[in-house]
Amino acid sequence: MSSSIPHQRPDAPSFPCVDANESRAAKLATQANKLTFIKQNNQNQVKIEDVEGEGPEPVYATPTPATYQSFTSHYPLLLDYGGVLPNFDIAYETWGSLNQDKSNAILLHTGLSASSHAKSHPGNDTPGWWERFIGPGSDYAIDTEKFFVICTNVLGGCYGSTGPSSPHPEDSKPYGTRFPIITQFDMVRAQWRLIDSLGIHKLYASAGCSMGGMQSIAAAHLEPERVRSIISISGTARSGSTAVAMRFAQRSCLMSDPNWNRGFYYDGMPPHTGMKMARQIATITYRSGPEWEQRFSRKRRVTPLSDDEMATNVNNPGDAPKLCPDFLIETYLDHQGEQFCLKYDANSLIYVSKAMDLFDMTKPALMDIDQHRKRNENKVNKELLGSKTSHSMEPPSLDSVQVNNRKPYISTAPAVPYAQELTEGLTRLSKIPVLIIGVHSDILFPFDQQRELADSLRKGGDPERVKFFALDGPWGHDTFLIDTSNVGGAIRGFLI
Amino acid sequence: MSSSIPHQRPDAPSFPCVDANESRAAKLATQANKLTFIKQNNQNQVKIEDVEGEGPEPVYATPTPATYQSFTSHYPLLLDYGGVLPNFDIAYETWGSLNQDKSNAILLHTGLSASSHAKSHPGNDTPGWWERFIGPGSDYAIDTEKFFVICTNVLGGCYGSTGPSSPHPEDSKPYGTRFPIITQFDMVRAQWRLIDSLGIHKLYASAGCSMGGMQSIAAAHLEPERVRSIISISGTARSGSTAVAMRFAQRSCLMSDPNWNRGFYYDGMPPHTGMKMARQIATITYRSGPEWEQRFSRKRRVTPLSDDEMATNVNNPGDAPKLCPDFLIETYLDHQGEQFCLKYDANSLIYVSKAMDLFDMTKPALMDIDQHRKRNENKVNKELLGSKTSHSMEPPSLDSVQVNNRKPYISTAPAVPYAQELTEGLTRLSKIPVLIIGVHSDILFPFDQQRELADSLRKGGDPERVKFFALDGPWGHDTFLIDTSNVGGAIRGFLI
């Protein structure tokens, strides 16, 4: 224990976990440019001891050095709830080659906190978040000898795409919470601009896991003629109240950290403590369940016995319990929180997780969004007229054309049954083959939601076009990052 | 919005939820004696708007005015991990009358944060946490015309029993984190002292829900000859890693709140923000699941339309989303957090929840505790000899005699199979009738754990003595507070 810790009382126990928090704060306080914390590849990461207990540990977020490509749209983007981004960047990486008729592109949608770095490549050999799923040859879920894979950092993120940490066009200071509310559809609209710029008319597949499982559907909803097939893994057609609750608990921890400062922390101390708490909660929702019982069970951290103790007392009891991390599951969560708390932008977490909560493919929800858009349509033209930005030569995106032309849903007065609302919301996908994968041990996107999605899609078109795989992996929601054999196999078979 | 809020930027959205946190802090800062916050019956509670969405809302914690009775033990209590309390108080309340041969007493063990106030009575007409389960006549689960019901505030709690907020005998200042680590067995030892003082030799039943479901077993393990029957509702024989993770996330929020101050906040600002975060997480573990989907679904808070809006625009879209509580499930969690954050002592939450994590009835775990006790046995005598406290005339408790006489388990060298370890740990209960109730929708004490407890008990004695009820209520863990019909019915039938 450092003697500089102010509140340490001689008659009270020590709290190494609280000391660690204070050390992190002290270290950050001496750092000149705090905004760099998410730009640097973990250089600021506090070193902590390794987690005990073996198990598969996927790469969650990989803050990549700037080896991604960047697409800038100079046309304004009208967002679902009325915000407008006059221009925006999308960071992306690609693997494989686009074929001559540009018909082999797979757009890969990510989970909440992932970067565009799904797979290592010559420019960046860090393993990506789906490293073992993408590669050359038929051993991989997505064969890069056949397909051209595109992965983006989502709009709202912090790994190269425009988000709350990006400069506001008016004052070049970070947006902070001046950033507008975004939806899954908005994120996908931004991706469609990128696809347009690559000259790709139709995607071979719109594929994604977790939040990406929502986006794989949203992309096809916005542009049904431009998606040949959909892969939605551990996703949902609408977030349930328990998932909203779990993400709310995370946002609350962030927003009640005084360092969050209502979203304007970029020239001060970042809300590292709130981020750590949020990540601990998130980790529970990502894993938990059977694997933890097998891996951690009730094992506690033990101080190795000294030679003397070994020699004299074979029945030495285990260590007395401590209030700081003690059970291995606690050290694991603590480690996950420490790892993440300076790796990702707090505002990005707030905006992107909120966009997950808002996702709802039922017809009434889609109608509500359409009404919001209709109300704000004029903003885009105004913005264009009043804009001082010189525009690139890129054509108006197909999407911004569609804003005005989209046929609104016809209102149905009486309430329709629940599943029926979803089938009605998914009508634009009625002719697209879909692969859905669900995992029984998932507590964040419960299995019933993938089944509901499959059933609703089947009711709205040829049932044979919908393939539904139910997996029994013990890893919970994160199975999509780990189970190359089953998840990968299902994808490979579907893409043939 | 108040103009006194320092960080409000004119070009950024308002955050009423952050304002509320800051208002609470400002209010507490002006309050002279902050320790009173848990003694006063919610007088300091911040008023917030009512939660929308109907549903059964049990009384979780009832900080009662001092209408409970108090038992003081002047004999030292040796704790499992070596701590010693030279003396301690146990707050308790009773209902019904003790019969002549003192054979009709039911000791009711509570959940984590409950007080002794299980039921209203002439001294305190506030509804108790099990109000509808206890009362005169055969309509109630526990008939007070037949039984004498005793409910205590647990050791480590803050509603009248000795805990971290109680004065340390050396300096009369609150223990804070100088309070020793306690276990479920320690809490039960303290209860047995009370039972001794009431002259009760044998309990008609040791009954409890949630944490109390652990204690109902622990009480019989310590004193198998003194328990006629056991009722364990939504409990477990050992906490699983997911439950530990969920409680760890709560403790982390508390311990990383700077106001926690390593446990010494009693003359300063309490960690009200950490408490609110912790309670939000706890509420997810208490409820969630099917009832939330039915009750809150994806409903959002709506601003009522003005008359003008009503008249002019029937298709007015819903409100734009907000980052502060927005979905009804969010307002619900926010409300639960606000309600609780000044109602319960943060250190009590840390110590009592840790004691839940430590509960493990497998033989190796019990052996480990026995070794710890053996190591520390001499502390009690030392304490007695060195004590300046004048002792009351109460006899040495049966328990403190047993400390020295208990036959230690014989170590078995090779690892025994999992369930077998539990059966071996539960041998002292081999002749006691047991009622176990489990709820399928419980995510905190998963149903499989109640089944495991039932199976392990059945293997260790006459299987017929173990009754196991599986319930399908949609309320998750909290079903035991709500479902008078099924939970109550099963208890009533078992007690006949």
Automatic annotation (TrEMBL), chains A, B:
This is Putative serine-O-acetyltransferase cys2. Belongs to the AB hydrolase superfamily. MetX family. Keywords: Transferase. Residues 105-481 form the AB hydrolase-1 domain. GO terms for molecular function: homoserine O-acetyltransferase activity; serine O-acetyltransferase activity. GO terms for cellular component: mitochondrion. GO terms for biological process: cysteine biosynthetic process from serine; homoserine metabolic process; methionine biosynthetic process.
